[in-house]
Amino acid sequence: MSDDRKTNVPDFLGELDAGVFMNKISAALNATALGVINSGGKGKVVLTFDLDRLSNSIEEKRVNIKHQLKFVTPTPRGKVSEEDTTETPMWVGKGGKLSILQEEQGQLFTIGGKPDGKLTVAQ
């Protein structure tokens, strides 16, 4: 599979929940690492992605991605856990590439600058 058809993971993570999800991952990693250093226990960070078709139409190439972040931070007297779940709709491009924007949006104008004829004119 060519690289242009693969999902760019850093871009994908940055697009989830309008960039907030990546900040949540960073905060969870920091808190867990700090807890491990301070308590000597083991920590855990888990990411889960559930994908569902956004509509019943095969024509619409969109999925809804439920992204979940779970983490366990050790403390001197036990552990603290947190779970956060949000959702983001995304387009599925060629080869299954996920993106917040549609990969191919079509041609709006002819080479001469006129509408391509497929657009309807509002009257």
What do these coordinates show?
By secondary structure, this protein is α+β, with helices and mostly antiparallel strands. The protein has one domain. The protein has helices spanning 9-15, 20-39, and strands at residues 44-53, 62-75, 78-92, 98-99. A hairpin with a 2-residue loop joins β2 and β3. The mean pLDDT is 87.
Radius of gyration: 21 Å
| Strand line-up of the largest beta sheet | 1-2-3-4
Termini gap: 46 Å
Look at the structure and give the mean pLDDT.
87
Question: How many separate helices?
Answer: 2
Report strand %: 25-35%
How many independent structural domains? 1
- Percent of residues in helices comes to 10-25%
Low-confidence stretches: none
Largest sheet: 4 strands, antiparallel
Could you say which overall geometry the principal axes of the C-alpha atoms support? Answer: elongated
Class computed from helices, strands and strand pairing: alpha+beta
Give the ordered list of helices and strands.
HHEEEE
Number of strands: 4
Describe the structure concisely.
The protein is of the alpha+beta class. 22% of the residues lie in helices and 33% in strands.
Keywords:
123 residues; alpha+beta; 4-stranded antiparallel beta sheet; 2 helices; 33% strand
Strands, helices and their partners?
Layout: H1 9-15, H2 20-39, E1 44-53, E2 62-75, E3 78-92, E4 98-99
Antiparallel strand pairs: 1-2, 2-3, 3-4
